[in-house]
Each structure stands twice: as C-alpha cells, then as structure tokens.
Amino acid sequence: MDYRNLIAGGWVATGAGTPNVNPSDISDILGHAAQAGATQLDGAIAAAHDAAPGWAVSTPQQRFDVLDFIGSELLARRDELGHLLAREEGKTLPEGIGEVARAGQIFKFFAGEALRQAGDILPSVRPGVGVEVTRSPVGVVGLITPWNFPIAIPAWKVAPALAHGNAVVLKPAELVPGCAHALAEIISRSGLPAGVFNLMLGRGSQLGPQLIADPRVNAISFTGSEPTGRGIAAECGARLKKVQLEMGGKNPMVVLDDADLDVAVEVCLNGAFFSTGQRCTASSRLIVTEGIHDRFVAALTKRMRALSVGHALEAGMQVGPVVDAHQLDQNQDYLRIARAEGGEVIGGERLARATEGFFMAPALVTDTTNDMRINREEVFGPVASVIRVADYDEALAVANDTEFGLSAGICTQSLKHATHFKANAQAGMVMVNLPTAGVDYHVPFGGTKGSSYGPREQGRHAAEFYTTVKTAYTGA
Ligand code: NAD
To answer: What residues in the chain have per-residue pLDDT under 50?
Structure first.
C-alpha cells in the first residue's frame, strides 16, 4: 500500500516512500508513506486557503452531513480499521477497535455540534442599540498529531475544525501514516469540497516549521512531546498565531489506606500499563500511603506479572509492543536510571516472541522518591513507579510536585478526601476510583502547567480554539 498526500482533492505521490513497520513483527511492512517536501506543503496550504472562504459559509446541514458520513463509516469499519491501527501502532486489537469507534463517535458528536451553532443576543447598555455575539471560523488550521492515538487524535482535531467551518492541513506523526491515510480517504468521499481537508505525510521537523511560519495558516493545534510543543508556542507567539498545545504528563495516582484494594490495583494496572503505557494520561507515579503500601505493591506486582504481552493481533494479548526501537531503548534507559537512583525495578525485561518486535514486560519501580528522574520525566512506556507517603496531605503535595498537570487520580472511599482532591489536584482532569487514562469524548480534555497551553480540546469547549468571537452592535 502506498500512502499518498491529499492536496486540493487529489492524491499526490512523492519519490521513494518510507516503510511503515509493524512493531509486533518488523518483517511485516504495511506500506510506504509519501514524504512531502516544501512544494507539496505549499500546495496544500494554498488549497486550504482557497477553500476556506467557501466552507466558512457552508450551512450547518452541509457540515452535519459530512461529519456524520465520516463518523458512520468509521463506526461501520471499526474492526477493519482497528486491525490496521493495532498492526501499525501496536495497541492490542480490542484497544485498536475501541480507538476507531471513539474516532467515529467524535465525528458524530461534532456533526451534532455543527447544528448547534449558537450566539448571544443582548441588550446594549446604550438605549436603542442591540448587541450580537457570534462565532466565526478561524480560517486555515494546521493540525500536528502524535503516533500514540493515530486515529482518535486526528479525529478530535479534524472534526471540530470542520464543524466550526475551518479548512485543514493535517500533519500526522511519521510512525502512523496508515491510520491518517485511511481517515483522509474516508474524508475524501464524504462530500467535503476539495481543498477543505488536506493530508501531509512527512517529517515533522521539516514540515512543521513551514506550516507554522506560513501566514496563510491562521492557527496551529499540536499534540506531542513537550520540547516540540514549547518550540511551536514560541514560533506561534512571535507571529501572534493562535495556538493550542497538548503535551506530556507525569500523572499521579494516589492510593490511600482506606481504598478498596481490588479497585486500586485494577485502576493502577489499567492506568499504568494498558496501551503499553503509551498514553499522555498514563498513571506513572503511584503515590501510596503507608498502611496499604506493602499489600498494594504485592497485589499489583502479581497482576502486572500475569499480563500477557505479545503480538498486538494475537487473541488474548493485554499489552502490545512498544512503538519502535527508539522508544524501547528509552524505556530501558529509564529503568537503568531508576536503578542507579536507588529504585528497585520489578519486571521490565525485554521479551522474545515468535515474531521479532519491540516487546518488554511492564515494569514497576518501587522505593522511589519524587525527586528522582523516573518521577520527574515522562517515560512514555509500560513503566510506573511507587512513592511511599505518610498520609493524604503528603500524597497531595507529592502529586502536585511536578511540572506537568494533565490527569490526576485518587483511590479512596473517603468522600472528604475525594472532594478535597478534586478541588486541589493541579491537573486538568481528576479521577476518583478510576484510571487517570480513559476519558469521555463529549467533555473537555486538557491539562495545566507544562501539559497544555491554550484552549481545551473536545466537547463544546473545542469551539474556543476553532472559532473567533465577534461582537456586533446595531444602532437605530
Ligand atoms: P513528537 O513531539 O515527537 O511529535 C508530534 C508531532 O509533531 C509529529 O507529527 C511530528 O512529526 C511533529 N513534529 C516534530 N518536530 C516538529 C517541529 N519542529 N515542528 C512541528 N511539528 C513537529 O511527539 P510523539 O513522540 O509523536 O508523541 C508522544 C508525545 O505526545 C508524548 O510526550 C505524549 O505525552 C504526547 N501526547 C500528548 C497528548 C495530550 O493530549 N496531552 C496525547 C497524546 C500524546
């Protein structure tokens, strides 16, 4: 399969494409992806720029029909596309199917949002004057996405962009061209006018700066690593360009003495290790009070050790491979660092399977303190550490002692502590007796501090980024 770029409604190839490798079996090449250069990106931006005014005045019904078509097809093809996702990115097949279904639901939600465009009519403070507050499309939006949710993250940026009347240039991550191409192929048959949506496959370090610098691009929405995000914010700031960033996490999960042990273990197992721990919302710091610490570590270790790790498409697998060799090396490096800092590493071995892939056992690092690198830096793999604390007050202080602030959780049966934690955890999302990862698609998603910058994504709040507010006054 050759993955091509979509520019002004036409599929455009480049020279030799880069191979798309299955992380469960590196002998399995899914296809080759086009590598756009400056000229192709210029063409995509021009196409979006030309198409934007027409789409900005499209009717709610037109937008609904396009988004509903895309959502319906994603849902109908969830098994097939879930298989592609699992083969390309390494999520297990059920996780892959679940992600495709979520992408479909996101398009369905924003199909509804296209119909629910509303504004305010207010009396002026001046006699005889009327005030209208409405939302206008931003124009051309550049969307830059990571590899770890290869269809859901493009969906949660593309769907609101189109619902609110914008034209799009999507630049997905290099490791996952197949899912982006499949989504683009559906969009190309949805009835959307040519040029409103354009796909650019290629190197982020080359295409990203050009996309951001081009004055025809009015806004940038980025999800990815923190260093890349910081650079994008600086470039957009210098150009006074609207920007939205979703970045990393070092998400705390507090387990108090009064927690239901079974619930706490299940929540931490899921939050830390499912999707191979490659979630920005993964529970990577398990902050556990003294009275339950040893029982919790023993029970979680037992469950972690029993997880089946292997080929993402093999029935019964609970944890797929790490996404590539670089990420696997990085995970192993962090385990070495944790050991050197005094942590005790349980699990984490590299695993051999029938096919050659990037498999590692999930790892728990015990006896850590919050100042260790393993607790300060995002690992982005199936690795969680345990920090022992005296009580709730210390747990909250440790939870908040981080540069990140995406998701934070607590396992407790105490209403008092749950209520206090919801109010005082420095995070954009707070979970009580639920994993830090795994969120609904109809409510805002995003964080505080170094995790997010700019308006929230998803739900009704997505309108903040994808529209500009206009205030109009009418006199007598
Ligand atoms: P990354 O920063 O390496 O890449 C993200 C995207 O940016 C890719 O499309 C890449 O091609 C592009 N890019 C690279 N250099 C660029 C540049 N100079 N200018 C513009 N774009 C550039 O991140 P990744 O490794 O693909 O994804 C993993 C990271 O994403 C993790 O840190 C994870 O926490 C984060 N993430 C965050 C969220 C969230 O919503 N907070 C969700 C998923 C992933």
So the answer is: none
